[in-house]
Design goal:
This protein is an alpha+beta fold and 265 residues long. It has two domains: 120 residues, Roll (Ubiquitin-like (UB roll)), CATH 3.10.20.30; 135 residues, Fumarate Reductase Iron-sulfur Protein, Chain B, domain 2 (Orthogonal Bundle). 35% of the residues lie in helices and 12% in strands. It has nine helices and seven strands. The protein has a five-stranded mixed beta sheet. It has a two-stranded antiparallel ribbon with strand order 6-7. A hairpin with a 2-residue loop joins β3 and β4. α6 packs antiparallel against α7, α6 packs across α9 and α7 packs across α9. The termini are far apart. FE2/S2 (inorganic) cluster binds next to loops. Belongs to the succinate dehydrogenase/fumarate reductase iron-sulfur protein family. Its EC number is 1.3.5.1. This is succinate dehydrogenase. Its cofactor is [3Fe-4S] cluster; [2Fe-2S] cluster; [4Fe-4S] cluster.
Length: 265
């Protein structure tokens, strides 16, 4: 080992990472901040730092504390479980690299959802909304239906982009209109309406889905802040979906008014 490498390793070994983490012991109890200072390792992400705190739950004052709770699963920005607010920005903690964050790194739970404990939130509202909008393709699984209907390639490509949604909740957290004063289902769910309505079989329930987003908590609650599309970690074109649904619901409104035997494409 050269002298220069030894000095570099010594510098890394003495480096630390500072965190300010919002803690909450139960859904009902008051939140509070706790500071941590942990040894630095190259290429750390927020989750590996939280794992280090869990391994040795001692706060920055040197006092033994309870391990911080958070959710995670895939560790590669696919499952959506690890969402939290990092330095004021809702995002996935598995892809938040410590080297790219200003310290102290502030971790808070997404406040759009009820806090279960520390950084763990309950995203049930989103899953209930998926049921409300019938976010599935109804098929009869009792016998082999053969291949599904083919989709034009261009349509398949844009629907594939919409299908990347991992129900992480980040766009709901970023949206000023998703709050406890409205029932707004949020941008992700609107985009899923567009996705399932675009499918040749899913379009059988198109009218029902449009009726849902034309009712309380639907499209009318969108304030067009456009925060959602900036926040989405999967780059889903949420505002394009919302614009397309505005057009679809307008057509549906005329259809409801004048009556039609035909599905609106
Ligand atoms: S649209 Fe994007 S930000 Fe919103 S829930 Fe889906 S993946 Fe997350
Ligand atoms: S752990 Fe799955 S998205 Fe981060």
């Amino acid at each position: 080992m050269t002298q220069q490498t030894a000095v570099q390793e010594q510098q890394v070994a003495s480096k630390t990472v500072k965190f300010e983490i919002q803690r909450q012991d139960t859904p009902e109890s008051a939140p509070y901040f706790e500071k941590f200072e942990i040894p630095y390792r190259p290429n750390m992400n927020v989750i590996s730092a939280l794992m280090e705190i869990r391994r040795n739950p001692v706060n920055a004052e040197g006092k033994k504390t309870t391990p911080v709770n958070w959710d995670m699963n895939c560790l590669e920005e696919v499952c959506g479980a690890c969402s939290m607010v990092i330095n004021g920005r809702p995002r996935q903690s598995c892809t938040a690299l410590v080297d790219q964050l200003t310290q102290p790194i502030k971790l808070e739970p997404m406040r759009t959802f009820p806090v279960v404990r520390d950084l763990v939130v309950d995203r049930e509202f989103m899953f209930d909304s998926l049921k409300r909008i019938k976010a599935w393709i109804p098929i009869d699984g009792t016998y082999d239906l053969g291949e599904g209907p083919r989709m034009p390639e261009r349509k398949r490509q844009w629907t594939y982009e919409l299908s990347k949604c991992m129900t992480c909740g980040v766009c709901l957290e970023a949206c000023p209109n998703v709050n406890d004063k409205t029932n707004f289902i949020g941008p992700a769910l609107l985009s899923q309406v567009r996705l399932f309505n675009a499918h040749p079989t899913g379009s059988m329930n198109k009218d029902e889905r449009l009726a849902t987003i034309m009712s309380d908590g639907g499209l009318g609650e969108c304030g067009n802040s456009q925060n959602c599309v900036v926040a989405c970690p999967k780059g889903i074109p949420l505002t394009t979906s919302i614009a397309a649904l505005n057009r679809d619901t307008t057509v549906q409104m005329f259809k409801n008014f004048f009556g039609s035997d035909h599905m609106v494409d």
